[in-house]
Amino acid sequence: MYLPEINKFENTVKGLFNFYHYSPKQRRDLKNWHILDISNRFDNFFEPPISYFETFDITRWPAERNKLVLHGVDDVTALFNHFSPLFTEEEVALGIEQYTNLKSRMKDLPVTGMYKMYQHLLTIRPHNLHVILKLVDIMFTISCSTATCERCFSHMKQIKTANRSCL
């Protein structure tokens, strides 16, 4: 809790903590360390297979229809191969075909934002896109951070203490 009258933070465990006792160099080092930590935590978004989901970003699609037909087919194939336990061989072949149908359908929709477009498709779930929409479901269910998992472990540490059996 911040105490403005003394310009300090009160920590219930360790008492008072002076936020401004760091030198400018220490603050800069601390900031750089945090930036490095965050970039390390989210680096895996730029590596396969997660990076293959960029092919669903409609803002990166080519404007010309003949280029659009071929765009992202390799990435979608790699995604189907990575998540192969979830799909049959027939679904993989059908899913790659449905990706082309998805692109033409999305290009014909009025631009309302990528999230709203996929939300609309996932709500109506057209039968001719049912396999590729499974892949879109996977894309939206991948967590962007480990905060939920870390929160569970924090709760577990609070429960599993030496005093837990005391009344």
Topology:
Blueprint lengths: L1 E2 L4 E4 L3 E3 L6 H18 L23 H6 L2 H10 L6 H20 L5 H11 L5 H12 L5 H13 L8
Helix pairs in contact: 3-4
Describe the overall structure:
- The radius of gyration is 24 Å and the shape is elongated.
- Helix 3 (73-82) packs across helix 4.
- The protein has a 3-stranded antiparallel β-sheet, with no helix packed on it.
- The protein has helices at residues 24-41, 65-70, 73-82, 89-108, 114-124, 130-141, 147-159, and strands at residues 2-3, 8-11, 15-17.
- The chain is mainly alpha-helical and 167 residues long.
- The two termini are 30 Å apart.
- The longest helix is centred in the middle third of the chain and has 20 residues, at 89-108.
Which key phrases capture this entry?
167 residues; 2 domains; three-stranded antiparallel β-sheet; 7 helices
